[in-house]
Design goal:
NAD(P)-bd_dom_sf; 426 residues; Rossmann fold; Aminoacid_DH-like_N_sf; nucleotide-binding; alpha/beta; 46% helix; Glutamate dehydrogenase; five-stranded mixed beta sheet; NAD; seven-stranded mixed beta sheet
Length: 426
């Protein structure tokens, strides 16, 4: 029988990268051919046109997407990204990685992702609200607390989630806080959600420094590319809770470097009011490319995917690469890292899982109408991350896999087993 030809609908560098990772992992665990394509490709995708009225009265049309990779273990879960270069293939890759991540950390979710191709910085607050509500309105037939639960991602925030929740609730006829996570606290958001991903990154970095590299966190230097929610929260947690010295930070406009250490709270305050790190007087300017090759103990790419290329991988001078972004290391670059015994890698589906874990906690709290304090949330988060870390290290030791392959095989195997257990609907 001839093999079914899969549509090129999702073709993009990111989706090709996710597929190559899947194929490598599937080969490593001898995943049966009968289940491979079902576990690899998304279950469904939605593309929508989003016309909104601009403040000047003109009409602008934007493209929006939602990809649901798997619903075999529960509702799909994933963020909503507003970015001008967003495409369907990128969204599909992010949904695939989210499925592996949720399975790896033991959540009853499949992976999803969505977003709008837009530069949100060019919209007024009222235009942004119109776009956010229109996007949610178009998705209503395909989502729900038991079907697909969106969350914030790059370019979106708690306020946008609040607008989306209100849109869905008005359509249903009553308040449905569990339709999205990452909401404002006043609308049923969870304590600890805003810092969850960055705090999780910091927790895992400290674990690997102490337990695997035998380096005291207070003696470590840290460089972070990306100073959005994840990068800034990771910087704060590493400096405040672990005593690490943050020597470099960057955003889309460039970076700053001070080998004696950067005052992170002061840099965060400057960035909040200036919307850039450029001009910060507590450090010297540095480019994003220069930051990646700085000598440091920990390098944290916390911005966008595919920044660690083969060229960059060969020039890294860190001891620990902690992938706070999704897919920051290309497939070819990862092959180079596997040959270097001087760098340990915390792969993305483990490193940045804190956000979806606390989103799950928020969903649970909404459905039970029971709310936890911040200390409880973070304690539960760190326990779940530690459990996933130990599973990855056990898989790595058992099969002599790289840490990335160990994490991916665990996630992929669990997704595939769920699909096999449910069978194929006739």
């Amino acid at each position: 029988m001839s093999k079914v030809i899969i549509s090129s609908l999702y073709d993009s560098p990111e989706f090709r990268m996710a597929c190559r990772q899947f194929d490598q992992a599937a080969d490593a665990i001898n995943l049966p051919e009968a289940i491979r394509d079902r576990a690899k490709y998304p279950r469904r995708c939605i593309a929508v046109s989003l016309p909104i009225q601009r403040d000047d009265g003109s009409i602008a049309l934007y493209e929006g997407y939602r990809v649901q990779h798997s619903l075999s273990t529960g509702p799909s879960k994933g963020g909503v990204r507003f970015h001008p270069e967003l495409c369907l293939g990128e969204v599909a890759a992010l949904a695939v990685w989210m499925s592996w991540k949720c399975a790896l950390v033991g959540l009853p979710y499949g992976g999803a992702k969505g977003g709008v191709s837009v530069n949100a910085a060019q919209l007024s607050p009222t235009e942004l609200e119109r776009l956010s509500r229109r996007y949610m309105q178009e998705l209503i037939p395909f989502i729900g607390p038991d079907v697909d639960v969106p969350a914030p991602d790059m370019g979106t925030n708690a306020q946008i989630m609040g607008w989306m929740m209100d849109t869905y609730s008005n359509h249903i006829g009553h308040l449905v806080p569990s339709i999205v996570t990452g909401k404002p606290l006043s609308l049923g958001g969870s304590q600890g959600r805003s810092e969850a991903t960055g705090a999780g990154v910091a927790h895992l970095v400290c674990r690997y420094l102490k337990d695997f590299l035998k380096i005291a966190p207070a003696e470590a230097t840290v460089a972070i590319q990306g100073f959005g929610n994840v990068g800034s929260e990771a910087a704060l947690a590493l400096s405040r809770n672990c005593g690490a010295k943050v020597i470099a930070l960057s955003d889309e406009h460039g970076g700053i470097y001070n080998p004696r250490g950067i005052d992170v709270p002061r840099a965060l305050s400057y960035h909040r009011y200036q919307a850039t790190l450029r001009g910060f007087d507590g450090a010297e300017p540095i480019s994003n490319d220069e930051l990646l090759s700085l000598p440091c103990t920990v390098l944290i790419p916390a911005a966008v995917q595919r920044v660690i290329t083969p060229t960059v991988a060969a020039t890294l001078r860190c001891r620990l690469l902690a992938e706070a972004a999704n897919g920051p290391t290309t497939y070819s670059a990862d092959k180079i890292l596997e040959t270097r015994d001087d760098i340990e890698v915390i792969p993305d589906i483990l490193c940045n899982a804190g956000g979806v874990i606390v989103s799950y906690f928020e969903w649970l709290q909404n459905r039970a109408c029971e709310y936890w304090d911040r200390d409880t949330v973070l304690a539960k988060l760190f326990t779940q991350l530690d459990r996933a870390l130990e599973a990855v290290e056990a898989q790595r030791a058992k099969y002599q896999f790289s840490r990335r392959l160990a994490a991916q095989t665990l996630g992929i195997e669990r997704v595939a087993h769920a699909k096999q257990a449910r069978g194929l609907f006739p």
